[in-house]
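Batch manifest line 874
LIGAND: iron/sulfur cluster
JOB: complex structure
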Amino acid sequence: MPADFNWAIGGEAGDGIDSTGKIFAQALSRAGRHVFTSKDFASRIRGGYTAYKVRTSVDQVQSVVDRLDVLIALTQRTIDENLDELHEGSVIIYDGDRTTMQDVEIPEGMIGLDVPLKSLAEDAGGAIMRNVVALGAACAVGEFPIENLDSALEKRFGDKGSAIVDNNKEAARLGREYVLDEYDHEFGFDLECTDENYVLLNGDEAIGMGAIAAGCRFYAGYPITPATDVMEYLTGRIEEYGGHVVQAEDELSAINMALGAARAGARSMTATSGPGIDLMTETFGLVATSETPLVICNVMRSGPSTGMPTKQEQGDLNAMLYGGHGEVPRFVLAPTTIAECFHKTVEAFNLAEKYQLPVYLTADLSLAVTEQTYPPEEFDMDAVEIDRGKVVDEGTVGEWQDEQGRFKPHALTDDGISPRTFPGTEGGVHMSTGLEHDELGRRTEDTDMRVQQVDKRSRKVDTAREREPFEPREFGNPDADTLVVSWGSNEGALIEAKTFLDEEGVDARFLSVPYIFPRPDLTEAVEAAEETVVVECNATGQFADLIEHDTLTRVTRINKYDGVRFKADELAERIADVLATGEEATA
Amino acid sequence: MSSNVRFTDFKSDAQPTWCPGCGDFGTMNGMMKALAETGNTPDETFVVAGIGCSGKIGTYMRSYAIHGVHGRALPVGTGVKLANPDIEVMVAGGDGDGYSIGAGHFIHAVRRNVDMTYVVMDNRIYGLTKGQASPTSREDFETSTTPEGPQQPPVNPLALALAASGTFIAQSFSTDAQRHAEIVKQAVEHDGFGFVNVFSPCVTFNDVDTYDYFRDHIVDLQDADHDPTSYEDARSRILDRDKEYQGVLYRDEESVPYERSHGVDADMSDIPDGAPEDAMDLVREFY
Ligand SMILES: Cc1ncc(C[n+]2csc(CCOP(=O)(O)OP(=O)(O)O)c2C)c(N)n1
Ligand code: SF4
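JOB STATUS: finished
ARTIFACT:
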């Protein structure tokens, strides 16, 4: 177990949990510590339990664990909800003056710090700062230099003027001093700082940033949890680069606007979550048959129907692979880390334009809403390359016209990829349609042409398989008998689970697969292993099905569909169990 | 823009499969005339069509075009226009396409006021699916799916547009070639969303709203002392369901198109080979 520190603040929605947690996470990141945050939130604005958890270490952290060292509890429920993560020596900071916390019960073996958060906040200038007093108290417990908190407070409240910033700094100091004065105690934590400079961001933000880096200019969307952050990130930023965000009237409109912009030559994107994907499915078919490059981002939440909008799941894989009537190629990319959300977004735009088809870019809720620190170089903008594929201009359009000078947007080519013109290009006039069409884009029911166009479209997939390195990411022992495969956000938990498994002497090879379609061929890896275990957050094992289909080999499944992401230690235990008993386990 | 464009330049070489006598021929000719007369070229024009007999128009015109899915043509047009404001965008569809499946988009396109033209070929019936009631069918119009008539009042698309803060609301009759083309031309020239509901008779499935019926009932606003810039005038005419008006019912002279109010003026097809030069600033925001 790495020497890390786990902290949380919890209370009712509306208590400012999110912004307080974020301030603490930023303070740690600015102190050169790695941070991984996770949120527990209910689908309501006021009322309902909410928590923001921060795991921090000087080493990289990329998952959550079953452990809490310091908890700021604004309600009794916060303590109850986290009981099994608290341990001997855990510190609970609370305000005994708060009506709901007067009879608070501190479990045995734990240290309760009663800090008058509200009255100290009032001393500093206003009760509203009571959470910041609590942060100051947490600094005292963790022996964390409070100056690091100052810069996070400046970032958070800077726009509101220096008086507000100063009051907040004062509030934090009062909290810290109170603990030092009243509790003469060694808590045993030491949050060491380093000289590193990290950035802290979540998957949705990384996707938005990737879109701008990739030259995305048009975004149309309709708000839905947990995809809305992508839209919020782009709004106000994309304009700086000549782009525009439209909040459409619904998802049907959003995808159609994005399609129109793409046909006009813009790199274009929409983002939504499950229910929105359902609505977009009809137009998805048009995007694909008209061979329009479009990035459709699906930030998955728990389904079906409205399901559990604020909970984790990886249940839409089949919908993205098979959704829509008829048969039509589409690519599905699934970043496995927050940094990869950035890189895969850039790749999604390139693939969409190179192969002229819709690309689903999918992140699961855990990836989208949790934040993690990275060195800024991880987002190397100089390395971003933009490939627009076969765009034809006035000089070259002649090569793609028939004898009568008509442009062939669906020309039958060996690689399946046809030329593309943007409106305004002389000699490139053409119509796109969802009807089956000939090379010119004219409707056809000719049997030969139908077959040729279907084959042409699917040839693009073969071409992509030849040209693109659709590789999995690998770690662990390449010669181990056990192969563990996962996709999406499970990678972080898996990497850390490896440490636990190593300690228990369990040896495994791990593959994390960011390409769902086209995907790497895992046949060799599966055949080389004695046992293959597939880890995913859904009930039926949609990815496991694909691996069985590809490799004609039965795999063992570890599924989780309770709405909560895998924790590293939990996952290690599940893998060890499965290997010991040979039984599949679900939760 | 070019001054020597002829309207036949907008004709494709595809032979229309509309029934002989269908109102859509006239509607389309008027659209092509309006485009040519406003100086647009096929290379700089984008036509978006929906599904239905009306939706086939994208095939018969020569321009950049898309034949979309049923009811969603307006959002596509919006995307095209915002991505390249230099392109002339014309959206066409049927009454079923626009006022039934696409009704939500219609209201929002009207209020969004993007600078494009929307022409609805209103035949008061579903043509392509062979004669079912449409939202503009009369209350007692018997069809295969409404043997007793829909028994609901028809929607009033002009009233919907007015209620949604439309800035250009007009109506024309496809066979009155000169007048129809002129009305569409004004819609194209309008700074904002130009909406024209066109009476475009279906000679196969609608024996009520026929050429003869319209010929007998149309009142041309040119002859009716109508001031299209007056909201009150427009309102009283639009709510008068006993008359079939032809002409511009309402024109907001103050109309500010979406592109202008939202500062959208770039051709978005033009992007660099790599990330923007100052892209590292985006990363630094996360410190
Ligand atoms: C989602 C969907 N539902 C139904 C249809 C079938 N459909 C095709 S055209 C049409 C009605 C067209 O009526 P209208 O828009 O009035 O056009 P017209 O054919 O009369 O010109 C319908 C319901 C479809 N193509 N897509
Ligand atoms: S069915 Fe009616 S609307 Fe369709 S082409 Fe024939 S006349 Fe025109």
